[in-house]
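Students often ask why we bother encoding 3D structure as a string. The short answer is that it lets us treat folding as translation between two languages. Here is a chain of 106 residues written in the first language.
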Amino acid sequence: DYKVTGVQTCALPISKWNLAPEIQEMIRAYHADAAGEAKSLAIVRLADALAHEVGTGYEPGRAPRGHLMPGDLALLGLDAETWAPLRDQLVVVMEEAVMALGKLSS
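And here it is in the second language, the structure alphabet:
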């Protein structure tokens, strides 16, 4: 049996999209579940968890649960109380971005 990993799944698109090497490495690290202390990796996990929570890019009710590593909020200088209003603002921005991208394809 051959199991395809998240790292393997994302490798081809990120190389074809001609993303900056730093962004490619961050995507690989995220999909490898790297537990690094990098703030940028914590930001990616936080954004991904939020996208999954609100269902961005998924059919309604079909988004998998995003995952944060313990300490991601603290690494970014946040706690649950400060994260809540930021989260709400980000949801609005994400919805606006999705609508704008949808208009590009029509």
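Translate back mentally: The first helix runs from residue 6 to 16. Keep this in mind for the problem set.
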